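[Automated response] Your request has been received and processed.

Submitted sequence:
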Amino acid sequence: LEWNEEKKEYHINNVIGPDEYKEHVNNNAFTNYMAHWNLNLAIEYYSKIKSEKPELFNILNKKLELDSNLKVWKDKVVKIYLPEPRKEDSVIPQDDTYLSKEIIDLTKYKNQEHVGSLFKDYSLDQVNEIQVSKQADMMVLFYLLENRFSTDVKRANWNYYEPKTLHDSSLSLSTHCVLASDMNDKEMAYDLFRRASEIDLGPNMKTSDHGIHAASLGGIWQCIVNGFSGVRMLGGELRIDPKLPENWNEVIFPLNWHGVNLTIKVDKNLLTVVKNSDSDEKIKFTVYGTEYILDKKIEIKY
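Generated structure:
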């Protein structure tokens, strides 16, 4: 954190955020929001550990000087600059300069057969000065801190940034797929899922010349479980808001929740959750805002 005397706030400068086509930028929104979230989490766990596990706290306090650092965290966290949506269009600046960079026609690069075609026409320094992104940046922020932003803000930023994102990273399509599901755009979500699946499984064999994209395969799982099935954890609570693609009849997958093995089945209008253990723990979760308690098996129309 660097203090900006003029604005009386802390900035985070000279970073590369998730979008690797924008190097050495100031106040990347994802970076700033996540730093703010992490500091608040540290403050929360300071209190939790101190009250619930005093012996552990004393050990950590000696090693990390938590008591003195807490004052620093509390002072700084409220002064971190968090880019806000612009009043005219609800777009959050990806960083201090992104929205002032040149806008070009990206059509042929969006329709590219091979990733990185942009660099046939531009150098990396030139790309750094164009409103073009390699991969998800703002979308990762909406994915991880989804309850921090309204649906209208997410959609406004989707409409602004997705057309400028070339998905030249294998990690980008799956993140956008989940966000498309969140916005109930089932057709777009399924198209992104298909494209993500084809990175290693599709007809273009060149994609895997240097090996399979292991993290991207995890992203495909996220498309299905976090996106189409709507499984998320917010504030430590389980949520299942299914949005099954129109051309799918059902999806079934295992889920371990707090050490309890579950089987979750989603079909066109029915969610079934089954507990596969003798645990007496009742599992609480929500489906589209309604709370349910799972004992052994529950079926929910949605």
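Summary generated for your ticket: The radius of gyration is 22 Å. The chain has a mean pLDDT of 95.
If you did not submit this request, please reply to this message.
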